[in-house]
Structures are given as C-alpha cells and as structure tokens.
Design goal:
The chain is an alpha/beta fold. Strand 3 and strand 4 form a beta hairpin. It has a four-stranded mixed beta sheet with strand order 1-2-3-4, covered by helices on one side. The chain is built from two helices and four strands, in the order βαβαββ.
C-alpha cells in the first residue's frame, strides 16, 4: 500500500494534490486545522472515501496533532 501525508489538503494546491494521489491509488493522510474541513473534504469525494485519513492539527501554543481516524 502506498501512503502519503499532505499538509493543507483541505484547500487550494494541497487539495488538488491530495485528489490526484488518491485517484492514483494512494491512501492519503490529509491535514487541516478544522475537523469540519477534513470531514467535508471526505464527503466531497465519496468514490475515494476509503482513501482519506484526516489528521487534525491545532494551531497556536498547542502544536500537538489530534488523530481523527474513523
């Protein structure tokens, strides 16, 4: 299995790259600052649902990453 982590994947250039990799068979770990953005991203591409794995990052003083794999 091929896996790639793409930061900023919920918008713009990162989003385009994430979609391209998913369509080419990769499992894509997408990051974003808001859970709703990552969840919404998955819903926009239902045919690729099994390829997305959101990772929510927090900004500011708390720089730890929160996993939201379901």
């Amino acid at each position: 299995n091929k896996v790639i982590l793409i930061t900023g994947a919920t918008a713009g250039f990162g989003r385009a790259i994430a979609v391209k990799f998913a369509k080419n068979g990769y499992n894509v770990i997408i990051t974003g600052e808001e859970k709703k953005d990552c969840v919404g991203f998955k819903k926009q591409f239902p045919d690729l649902m099994s390829k997305w794995f959101p990772l929510i990052s927090t900004s500011g003083k708390d720089t730890r990453l929160k996993m939201s794999l379901k």
